[in-house]
């Protein structure tokens, strides 16, 4: 009897085919992918997929959190929402359909729910499209019959803006350990919800007990900053708080430095040009049309890692990045969250 070949280990870029496109809201869709060749697909809930597409003859890469559960099948799902100036996201919504293909790197990321998560409770907090990694975590916990008490706290503009709304309602009705709290700008009579923004008074009322709990959050920076402050005010151990953000890195001291121009050299590609201390290293490298991937553009995914051979850079991200201490000592930086402080020589 002929044995079926073992799935290949996912190495480098692989081609994925979209096998399903689901409309979640007016401006959000879920794209379900399947590798063209059998691959061993392994990831943890909360990690992301680095997708690469071609738009108008140029390749662009972006990171999208997986909304699927790693417990069900080899299919991978990401949920994409239309955003202002979102080149890749908006192109996917307007032009990408079932049967189309793109390339992707293997799932990765330092924001995830550990496979051996054993705390009695978990608090999943999200706003807008930040719901995607939270949904992956919730699905995984329920798929594996975990006894962990799940409190899913989500903020959105209105009822029709809630991504995965029907599935969340089904989870809340079917699983006694799953509690759903929805905070909406505009409330509805169709289901239980709370009006306004998530403020300390409402947060304390919805989450009176934070003992024996880990908290995961994803959403706009202003949302996560406010939530972190609420947790700190409650004396929550912040080592038990975990966050994901794909908001572009911003200078730590905005508009403080006088504009300066430096020389940028990349000898390995015979490229050189100018770089300002007001732009990221990634911006300068892309302007030189060098082969560097800027996926998350927020110092999270690590796709734009490069090495400083000579010169000084400033890290402008407050996010805990994926670079190890050893890599940093060796001169590696994330181009998307670094600015030049002198003439630079880089190695890609």
UniProtKB/TrEMBL annotation:
Class of this enzyme: oxidoreductase
Enzyme Commission code(s) on record: 1.-.-.-
Segments forming domain 2Fe-2S ferredoxin-type: 260-348
Domain FAD-binding FR-type stretches: 11-114
One GO molecular-function entry: oxidoreductase activity
Co-factor(s): [2Fe-2S] cluster; FAD
PANTHER family in alphabetical order: NADH OXIDOREDUCTASE HCR
Record-given protein name: NADH oxidoreductase Hcr
Keywords for this protein: 2Fe-2S, FAD, Flavoprotein, Iron, Iron-sulfur, Metal-binding, Oxidoreductase
Family in the record: In the N-terminal section; belongs to the FAD-binding oxidoreductase type 6 family.
